[in-house]
Amino acid sequence: DAFHTIPTTPYEDQKPGTSGLRKRVTDFKQPHYLENFVQSIFDTVRDFRGGKILLGGDGRYFNDEAVQIILRMSSANGVSEVILGKNAILSTPAASHLIRKYHLNGGLVLSASHNPAGQNGDFGVKLNLETGGPAPTSVTDAIFARSQTLSHYRIADGNIDTSRIGTQNLGDMRVTVVDPVEDFAEFMEELFDFSAIKALIESGFSIAFDAMSAVTGPYATEIFGNRLGVSHDQLYNTRPLPDFGGAHPDPNPVHANALFDRMFGPNPPDFGAASDGDGDRYIALGPHFYVSPSDCLAVIAANAHLAPGYKDGIKGIARSMPTGRAADNVAAHLNIPIYETPTGWKYFGNLMDAGRITICGEESASTSSDHIREKDGLWGVLMWLNIIAAKGESVEAIVRAHWRQFGRHYYTRHDYEEVDKASAESIIATLHGQLETLTGRSLQGETIEVADSFTYTDPVDGTVTKNQGLRVFFESGSRLVMRLSGTGTKGATLRIYLERYVGPEGDHDIDLAEATAGLAMIADTLTDLKQTLNRDAPSVIS
Ligand code: VG1
Ligand code: CO
Q: Residue 435 Cα, ligand 2 centroid: separation in angstroms?
């Protein structure tokens, strides 16, 4: 036979979370672990057989080995062609773009995103379908169900030289290695005014872009360096490393501290940005000024028409529920719909496919549009540069003018990472148990209006998704949200999202920690979380 059928037994823990199956490398290296999950995908997504798929990853440790295994299994499962990123590397947004561009049946992106990599780090497998977007929960649930009954997987022999552009064969399957960077850069040139951005850079506007030793480095070098004239010494950590240099490739004030030091230190550049492991997140800063990702979504939605790809305006906006509500005011002003979805990009897909929204984003450092079906870190950075070039104003001036028009949503997220799972669950249960009795209660000068557990009904296909986070709304307009992360691999991560609104005429200069301190205390009073978790402070505040 051209392939082997290998007997195997199920693993009980192959249920994908917010964004694919994410586990420790040591879990993925258990016998048949990766193979079981991949076979479960082939058994579930039937059109991969005889179809064309995309494959690549963020280049982290185990990427190369996993890619060869998946190629051999693709051949044995009857895939007709695999489009493979050069050296098996693809950013998540580039993967989404290529699936759409080549009309593929879908693809596998190997990444654990912002989680650390290396032998003791994390690995992940994300599945995207023919729209280019992450598979919906109905599909990932079916894959998990299949993994629980799996008894065999199929695998062929052979190897592919992933560095050789062009077509090779593995059994009857074609493997075409492409250079995704060029393609992606050209695509960005269609959406943004590169000549205006280039003129801005030539006028002396300085930037600092930190690729965090992850996947965006080569894209940033081509786009910012070669095409926009940014000097290469303004681009940091652009060589992708299998362990991301030992760091967390997560663009937040803790893990992107080198960028924050630069932007808050003496003589900062005019604009700072960083992206994450797989290139779908970004942050934006001006000199001594950090733009909260929820504000990024709002400012971009309000100004997208300044970029050529969006010159006719936007159709609608979506944000995940815990994301700050600054964009809601923009939608009201533009008289377009705003949708509130559960956490994770997979919920935006239907809205984009149905033409209901153009722009969407999350508080976890991402904004993107319907140009693809993933979030896109470099798109966000280019959008900011385009807006700055078009307006001729600084990041801070743009954001402050936005607040004066729409009011300011002081917004912060507190993460308690790698805490005891049972304790984290008990905190959620404690708040859940009080939801119905909270109305009217006053704490820290705030009175609770109503509290609930977020349920999403997809307006396109009617799918109902329950238990997507606990929300406490206050009469003042403030909001407190709590939920457990679905991307961690050790213990549990409790996320607390705090938001306080001050109108256009109000004070926009309160220290963020101070502005949200009362809400943080309310979260603690309601759930006794610090005592229960035995922590005095969050692990990360973003
Ligand atoms: C986190 C973020 C969420 C994001 C997800 C995947 O999920 O909060 O907004 O969509 O990561 O991002 P969770 O369940 O841990 O809160 V990425 O950059 O990992 O693909
Ligand atoms: Co990511």
A: 32
